[in-house]
């Protein structure tokens, strides 16, 4: 169905605003239809209008449409900026077409357009999808040396997640020293969760003590930084302590959860019961089994026994 100009206003600014609004509503097809109408009937769309359509493609995960739009810039004597390239990269990442996001970034570099921190964040997400942990870590150096940018907490958390998911837990733990040097503004509770996850991934019979000590230490550092642990934090710490058979440490975490405004769930209940049984503390295991039943009203599953 055609989109009448009278409905959106006769000026390019009004039409661009309409393209933006349609994109924000998730109506990417209508957004592109309006841009196409402008190209055919006028007023002639500029870089801002094309950028708005690219943003609509990103929100709608329309990677092929976004790439096609980028191809329209040169014939129209338009030069895409970092936001335009960033929207195309974002569309590729959201569509799980990570390899194409790297192609777009290459074209951006060839065009001499400088990347901003949002672009680097999207590129790291693409690296994570592709299992390219080396490339993700190289982004950190590129940001500083090539773009003069300073990594923020989102960048660091993405790097930690990438290293952990790619099985590179030593790299993730080594990155912690870089993050701490960057200052408290460079990490949050998500950072702590990612590091604890990295520790949990470094399983091994000879690393049991290192893992649970490290997890508890990270929890302590988070509290010292005035960060509030989440249920994810507590569950992760409980899990590594459970694996090491340290039921007392799990109980300490559970006892403190009330002050952090989060409550244990069934997985944490199970973690405590198993940890207590592994350390031979059957009395505490049975006590927590009863407490869990009274709190949830649910019969524990087979794994709890």
Automatic annotation (TrEMBL):
PPR repeats lie at residues 152-186. It comes from Polarella glacialis (Dinoflagellate). It comes from the Eukaryota. Pfam families: PPR. The keyword Repeat applies. Keywords: Repeat. InterPro entries: PPR_rpt, TPR-like_helical_dom_sf. This is Pentatricopeptide repeat-containing protein, chloroplastic.
